[in-house]
Design goal:
With about 800 residues, the protein is mainly beta. The chain has six helices and 46 strands. The chain has a 22-stranded antiparallel barrel.
Length: about 800
Amino acid sequence: MFIRSTNLVIILCLLAVRALSQPVPLRVRVQDKQTQPVIGATLRLTDPADTTRQLYEITDTLGLATFQGTIKKNYWLTATSVGFKPVRKLVQPGPTVQTIKLETDNITLQGVSVTAAKPLVKQEDDKTIVDPEPIAATSTSAYEIMEKTPGVFLDPDGNVYLSSTTPATIYINGREQKMSASDIASILKSLPPNSISRIEILRTPSARYDASGSGGVVNIVLKKGVNIGLTGSANVGFNQGRFGNQFAGVTINSTKNRRTAYLNLNVTNRNSYEQIQTNRHFAPDSILRQDAYTTYPGQNYYVGYGLGFELSRRWDINVDGRFSWNQANSEATNENMISAFNNAASRATSAEQLVSDNLNTVDNRSRILSFNQGFTTRFKLDTVGSELTTDVSYNFIGTRGLQDFSTQYMQPQRQTTIGDGSFTNQRHLIAAQADLKYKPIPTLTLETGAKTTVQRFTSDAAYFNLVGQNRLPSQARTNQYNYYENINAVYVQASKPFGSFLLKGGVRLENTNMDGQQYVPADTSFRIRRTDLFPYVFLSRKLVEIAGYELRTYLVYRRSITRPAYEYLNPFAQYVDQYLYQSGNPGLRPQFTENFEANISVEDRPLFAIGRNYTRDIFTSVVYQDPANRSIAYRTYDNLGSNRETYFRLMGVLPPVGRYFFILGTQYNHNDYTGVYEGKPLNFQRGSWSIFTFHSFKIDKRSTATLNAFFRTKGQLQFYELGNFGALNLSVNRKFMRDKLMVTLTANDLLFTNYYQFTLQQGSVSADGLRRNDTRRFGMTVRYNFGLKKRDERTNMFNVDTPTQ
């Protein structure tokens, strides 16, 4: 009875507030100087108190448009149309029709094409939006687009970093990809570059997003059928480093009678290499030198598809999916040499004697099937932005592989050891969520929602050693386990302007359930049950307007969690080579991060940010030496204590003026670790700089040259201290055949500087080395745009292609 009464009171209050607000429609008529209606003009209504709140309408055949959700206050109204100069004026809703006269733009009418200047990077509330189109023309995959996006950094393992040294969480179409970094990197490498609509970067995501993104969230939004009629593109290309990549694909979009459809097909043949050289001092008078060289030949076949139906003006549904078949092979050789010094106190001048020399070879042949199917609905509750959305998705990734391995002993000479194995694993992920956004009055937005994810992972690996003529099981490599994870979440948040301020606040509750069961070689089961609360606060304010440019500041606070994956928890000792093995830590605790950030943007372009992350129970990959045999090390994960990370980011943008446009930015991160390592106090500090830039120069009407580069000094990868490294990428594209055909020439990592030297000095472990990949590549891409569009649209009366959104 109490709950029913409470609900009744809430409903009555909301109805009262809505009645008092008395929404008044705003009717607008757009005409030219001859009082003729302007058909298809775009109208944008902006709240002066909160410029992030905007409404859009399109004029009909009479040049009329109506905004239904306004109230009695002044708004900025902007009207634009092809062939006319834009008009901006202050208006107030009322019973009369507002009439706007557009003046002919003579300069625009002299040409037959109009180019809409879209910013490469812009700020929208608490997220940064990247337009990938300028980068897609110079890339062969979505992975390369991420590498070239200003302010985004990728390590050789595929982890993505934003502000923090903690990797970001990757979403595709708003859905978290609960996979390892290497699996996500494989998916991004299979996505064609022109399949991406936009990239959303959320360094401090709101309560609407999962709390697991301590390092932020990168949401890759794929294109859908948004063009009028039937359109598409076909592309083919290659790039060559030490090894070569070849690719081809086709994209088809269709929109007709409130139905949209798209289809992406792509095939890639690729190869690359990685070289890791390591020197590890495991005793005062001994050193282990390892030189590992691996090639990665493979083929990938990708299909992406989607269907959208607008059932009514208020209700639409979408079905989309992705299918990927990947033949991922690797061929590795690792030379291991142990040397002893005659004089341990002076190794630089003492003689070095070779004690041991052997060669490991490992050949993997893997087949990976990835499948994702999603179903979304959206129901508009009113015309001011209230809506109910649902999203249900299923994701599957399965791997089958074979491995052959051997060790040849040259000094001292021994019989070669030979073995083989097979492995299979499957990951099933089901996610369902519902989100409600309700605007009882246009100045107040309430959001709430619930989400549940269920993940099941199974792994089975069987390895054998060949001893004489007998094939015997290898206990060091064989294992079998299952992993189950269920995370349930609910959230609520609200946003409202107060004068020149905009306040958004919310809280998210997440319930975590993890079960791990290992059957072979021994039972190492564990179970985790916990419930956590994650608050979020966002405050923005207009600072000042200088020379017509608005400066706005943002303050953000967020609490997040990083949960250990199963491979971090499984204590099974997995064999890597005779000098290294790795195992998980079932006692590993999740780490919690509190983030504070302040930033400033200019006309929706990010300018400056400063922030601090406080992380407790921080866990990371650590290397310990085996106390029984110091030539052997084992890699595991451990909670080391706490970390204070301070960062700032500065970005300068030259808007498109004439033919030239550029972005230049820098970021500084300083980490201060305090904890325990190998039972001893740990105090580790390191500061690193990152510089990034993007330049575009329009050579003529059909040719454009671009340059993007980054440079990192004193980088950090967990406790590895990295040397200086960076990359310089160049490209030139030229359009032919009435701009339908584009040819792009690229040079990636032109100076071959995208590799780094590293050192590890923690506890009893002392190591240094070098890591290099096949990053310097030269290539060419050819893309042809085709399709038919409706010819009866007044907005295309000058044969102007509407920019794809």
